[in-house]
Amino acid sequence: MTVIKLPTVPTDEGRRRYADTDGYYPDRSLHTRSPDIYSPCTCVAGCAPRCGGKCHCTACGLDFKVYCDVARLLTPDGLKVSEEDAVARYREEAPIQTAYVGR
Ligand SMILES: [Zn+2]
Ligand SMILES: [Zn+2]
After folding, report:
1. Which ligand sits closest to the CA of 59?
2. Ligand 2 centre from 31 Cα, in Å?
3. Domain-embedded: residue 47
4. CA dihedral of residues 22, 25, 31, 37 (deg, nearest 10)
5. Total of domains in the chain
6. Which residue range(s) make up the domain with 83?
7. pLDDT tens-digit profile, the chain (103 residues)
8. Which residues lie closer than 8 Å to 62 by C-beta, 6 or more apart?
9. How far apart are the CA of 23 and the centre of ligand 1, in A?
10. Helix, strand, or coil here: 31?
11. Cβ 86 vs Cβ 95: under 8 Å
């Protein structure tokens, strides 16, 4: 059996994307922009801007989820729209509402 080691440190690309929090998603529970060490950005250089966690990046996946929640696309039954639609909206209009500033 293969043991999959979860990445616990951000990649260089992650540090670039979440520069304010050293490559980690900001911990919203603290009302500050301190890093959430359980949510590193593990995007690679070729990863799409605002990838939404398609590359299994924890930070960007979380940012996408937060967007869906804030945009009221998320219901107890799941997404109200198709995931492609949600990702498209996220890429277009999220910068103000979520942590990822798209540098
Ligand atoms: Zn990422
Ligand atoms: Zn990514």
Report:
1. 1
2. 25
3. yes
4. -70
5. 1
6. 12-93
7. 677 666 579 999 999 999 989 999 988 766 667 899 999 999 999 999 899 999 999 999 999 998 898 889 999 899 999 999 999 999 887 554 456 544 4
8. 25, 39, 53
9. 8
10. coil
11. no
